[in-house]
Write a structure and sequence with these properties.
Layout (H helix, E strand, L loop, with lengths): L2 H14 L8 H12 L11 H22 L23 H23 L3 H15 L3
Helix pairs in contact: 1-4, 2-3, 3-4
Length: 136
């Protein structure tokens, strides 16, 4: 089974409870360390364009984190970015979920379709159907 996809999916499901909350840099670094970077413990197989989007989102979190630490970031002209109508708010947790969830579900679906072709699965499925009919 593709354990890494299942672990990541469960992690995303837990985060989904906080979908509208701001996404913090610590969460992004945790995802990077566990699922995104090369040779991560649960490295998931995602397209390079998706990986790029992940790192774009991470940069937004870094930038927002720097803005929030200093109160308000100043433009090169000394005006606060809030006065220049630049949105310095943190990205939402939902953005991370939307970014990764579809790809993870596709990976899990691919794993299931390969599993269904094995003799072990066919045997298990026969036993499962018999037990279901007999309510065992």
């Amino acid at each position: 089974m593709s354990l890494e996809n299942m672990v990541c999916f469960v992690h995303l499901e837990e985060l989904e409870k906080n979908g509208e909350k701001p996404l913090d840099l610590a969460t992004m670094k945790d995802f990077e360390k566990n699922y995104i970077e090369n040779n991560a413990i649960y490295e998931i197989n995602i397209a390079s364009s998706l990986k790029k989007s992940f790192y774009d989102l991470m940069r937004r979190c870094e930038n927002s984190s720097q803005v929030n630490k200093s109160g308000t970031e100043l433009s090169q002209f000394g005006e606060s970015k809030e006065n220049l109508n630049v949105d310095s708010s943190l990205p939402k947790v939902k953005e991370l979920i939307d970014l990764l969830k579809t790809s993870i579900l596709q990976n899990l679906g691919d794993t299931l379709s390969r599993l269904e072709t094995t003799s072990q699965f066919k045997h298990w499925y026969e036993v499962y159907n018999i037990q279901s009919k007999n309510q065992v």
